[in-house]
Amino acid sequence: MTKFEITILGCGSAMPTTLHHPPSQLIDMNEKLFMIDCGEGTQLQMRKYKARMSKLHSLFISHLHGDHIFGLPGLISTLSLLGRTADLNIYAHKEIDFLLNPLLTYLGSHLSFKINLFPLNPHSEEKLFENKMMRVTSFPLKHRIDTNAFLFEQKQSPRHIKREMIDFYHVPVKQINEIKNGADYLCSDGNLILNEHLTTPGKPSRKYAYCSDTAYSPEIITYIKNVDLLYHEATFAESERNRAEETFHSTAQQAAEIALAAGVKKLMIGHFSSRYNETESLLKEAMAVFPNTELAVEGKIVSL
User: Fold this and answer.
1) Which of 99, 172, 223, 250 has the fewest Cβ atoms within 10 Å of its own Cβ atom?
2) Residue 86: which of 52, 57, 129, 59 has the closest Cα?
3) Cα–Cα distance between 77 and 107 in angstroms, integer?
4) H helical segments located in the chain
5) Domains of the chain (ranges plus CATH)?
6) Closest CA relative to residue 137, chosen from 19, 223, 35, 45
7) Comparing C-alpha atoms, which of 52, 51, 59, 111 is closest to residue 81?
C-alpha cells in the first residue's frame, strides 16, 4: 500500500511552552513531504524526527497568526543552505507577502531556489493541488482572521485486472489501462463484457482533514464527511467555553461533536492552550462524545 503518513511536529497554540511546539505537521505521501503550518522551530523538529528536508514538496499555511508562520524564515534559509534548486510552492493567504517579500529581499541572490506563492480562497472550497495519486483541497474555517482547512486525499487506485478473464476474452494489451479505469470490453462478436467481470475493486481512497484554528463550526461537516482521520483544534476545556467563543477557538467536546456529526473514523485533537499542564482531561472530554479520539503529540506518526 502506498505510504500515507502524518507526523506531528508541533501541537501547541500561540503562547510558547516547554510542553508543546507551535503548530506544524508533515504529510508523507509516497515519499513526498507536504508541510502544514510552520511554527517557530519547525526545522529543528524536522531534524529531531529525521524528516528529510530534500523531500519537501509544498507548504500549506492555514492562516497568518505568528504561531503558524514564524518558522518560515529559518526553514527557507536552511533549504537554500542545503542547495535546494527545485521550486518551493507555498499555499497561503495573499497577505503573507508582508513576511516573504522582506525575507526574499534580505536573502537576495543567495537564495538557491524560486518560491511560488498560491493565494488561498478564504471564502469557499478550492482545489489546490492534484496529480495521479493525490488531491489537496481547502475550505474556510471560522476564526478571527481568514483561515483555511486542508483536505488531503489519496485517490482510489485503479481496479485490479483478473488475469484469467483477460486471457479468456483475449483482451488486447492496449485496452488494459482503459479497463483498469472502469471501461467495459466489447468483444469482436459484439458481446459486451462488463468491467466487474474483468476486474476487482482497487484500494479505496484515504482522506485526512486538518482543521486548525476554528471556532465551533458545523458548516465544515460537509467537507470532512467520513474522512479516515480528522485533526481538529481543541484549544480549551469545556469549562472555558466562553473563552473559546471570545477567541474563535473550540473546546475538546466541540471537536468531538464535529467528528461525530461528520462520521469520521478517527479524531485527533491538538492546538492545546498553554494554560494546561496536562492534556488527558481534554482527551477525556472528547472521548465522552467520540470514543475513537487520540491526542496529538510531538513525534507521533499516524499511518492511514
Assistant:
1) 172
2) 57
3) 8
4) 42-48, 66-69, 72-81, 97-107, 163-168, 176-180, 195-198, 221-224, 241-247, 252-262, 280-287
5) 4-157+203-303 (3.60.15.10), 160-200 (no CATH)
6) 223
7) 111
Residues annotated as catalytic are 67
The CA distance from 177 to 149, in Å, is 35
Distance from C-alpha of 185 to C-alpha of 190, rounded to nearest angstrom: 10
Query: Which positions ≥6 away from 94 have C-beta within 8 Å?
Result: 117, 119, 120
Contacts of 13 (CB under 8 A, 6+ apart): 22, 23, 67, 213, 235, 271, 272, 273, 274
> Mind listing the pLDDT tens digit for each residue in 104-128?
898 887 899 999 999 999 999 999 9
pTM: 0.88
Burial letters 81-96, b for 16+ CB under 10 A, else e? eeebeeebbbbbbeeb
> 277 is written with which cell numbers?
499542564
Q: CA 129 → CA 44, 101, 156, 211, 269, distances in Å?
A: 27, 24, 16, 18, 25
